[in-house]
Amino acid sequence: MSRVYDILKKPLLTEKSLVLRDTDNKYVFLVAKNANKHEIAEAVKTIFNVTVERVTTSVLRGKVKRMGRFEGKRPDLKKAFVTLKKGDKIDTAEAVSK
Fold first, then answer.
1. Is pLDDT larger for residue 96 or for residue 60?
2. Domains annotated on the chain, with CATH
């Protein structure tokens, strides 16, 4: 069970993700970089008890940033866009608290 919670790191609550949630019943999560679509779908099913129709993923490369003469790199991120069956919902307040 702990593996399921290692896959989903946290929900991504931005203006765009809230619009996707309201119009297309899609929820956006930050996930582990090595997680695949099947594992993500199974984790969402297990944690929230909903039916997942589709999962799409996006890998965001971290930017190189400078501060004076020092250079650093932001971390790479992986986002998962999870489409749920019509009528299913995830309470985002519940998602944030876990």
1. 60
2. 2-64+73-86 (3.30.70.330)
